[in-house]
């Protein structure tokens, strides 16, 4: 292993980043020793701010974790199709589960994430040795809060590393100067998760709820600590591919490899973890600090405008990013701007000489077709168009037959231009990528409700009020999310939910709601994994597309109109039958095209998607440890799951 801590303190030298709505001061009191630093609340806060600042690196939460790490699922794809899906030198092959230990991104992510852990360990050790926590009063309370923040951030990082790599090195103390505690082997992920749960339980009492402008969701809140603990508990209760079979664990009957089985804990432990999740999810719901923004459009408009919501606080924790410094939300994922602004068009549509948001994360045709027509999430999430110059005309243009290349419209240049922080001016002035500075949301309230619905259904049933900590039923939690998606029409939303539940069962409806609500946000893949549904759902998506094309069940054309500006496509006019009047345009829809006799989408691209998941080892979704990391580990680390070192 590359010395995982030798260069990690470099993260402490990060420059300050401006967040969407406030400034986290990270000035380094480098001339001060630890004793001085951690016996002063001002200097201690600066060291905690450095942890937040280190989260904004590309290999942490500016790009890799919120966008790349969550690919591929049944509805979210990396933009690698056909032969490109085997390109193991980039995310295109690696996220199609054709992973390669030689992929350079792996070591970078490993080093950066462990660097953040080292920063957190330094803060925790410094506070533990501080004279201030031996006293009583405001200074002690503040130091205990700082320690709690560091522990929650460390737990978040370890949890994400576990979900990427499985069993990993685990250290809760800063590195010794003699490096004796640096070279360590793997710790079982279950042991790590148990320790993280303990850290979170200890930290929660010292954290405030988000409130006003004094303690916002740009810092670790009590709500997020509760939610993170619940998520870890459900993951501890769920399925994981293992390096070797564990005695007393349940082995999956589906998608389990003989050498590297997919297992979960026994029923008693599973029940314990679900009860723990119930307690902490109920704490969030009962407190009422967090709720959903009344409309979906309102929520995503606020995200794109970088407006911190101090009213509803749908976000439990959002990592503060910096304009032109961090966050590729809107660029690497989002509505596509494809090509430089040509001039001669209204300045309202000027996105600069770079003129490009790459939209590396794509959505699928079966996902788009799965939505009810009344569900507002469909057209907000799935962008079937892009801005580009075509036949000499610069305007929005439909994608046509792009069943595996739908853009995720949640992050949207068209909304971002109304920001007040100078983003639009920066984009218009630059021929290079401009980082959006949009905060990366680690958890929002609908995910809390989805986890709660799952827990309540598991423990008490879908309609029962027998919960120990909260009277809300599983159905009521699910209805709350669905009703907003149906623009507040509770009767229509619950009628649709009831129909789904009667047809397929309550849990499967939760699985569907998870996709409709959270696609593109780096959540679904890890929930599918703990449910042992990743492989099955990918197969289901492929079969759905194959059947639709072969049976001709997808419409041949999509008809649409432009808005009055003759630039913007009006999604409310989408029609799949015949044009209503002469003002309609048409584009080829998903499926068989007369111009594509080879059927490349069906016969070449579809089989390449996620093709490596079961090719060598069944259910091999975990990434390998980088070859360079292993070679410098002093023999402490090795790869598993059929990967070479």
Q: Which helices and strands appear, and what pairs or packs with what?
A:
Elements: H1 34-37, H2 41-54, H3 58-62, H4 64-68, E1 76-78, H5 91-94, H6 104-128, H7 138-165, H8 189-203, H9 222-237, E2 240-241, E3 250-251, E4 262-264, H10 267-287, H11 296-304, E5 315-319, E6 336-338, E7 361-363, H12 365-370, H13 377-381, E8 382-383, E9 385-390, E10 393-398, E11 406-408, H14 413-416, H15 423-429, E12 440-444, H16 445-459, H17 474-485, H18 490-504, H19 506-518, H20 524-530, H21 534-551, E13 557-562, E14 569-575, E15 585-588, H22 600-608, H23 627-631
Task: Based on the coordinates given, report the CATH architecture of the domain at 1-71 and 90-206 and 590-645.
Answer: Alpha Horseshoe
Low-confidence parts lasting 5 or more residues at pLDDT below 50?
A: 1-31
- State the oligomer: single chain
CATH class wording of the domain at 1-71 and 90-206 and 590-645: Mainly Alpha
Percent of sequence in beta strands = 5-15%
Calculate the mean pLDDT score and round it.
Answer: 92
User: What summary fits the major beta sheet?
Assistant: 4 strands, antiparallel
Number of separate strands: 15
Structural class: alpha+beta
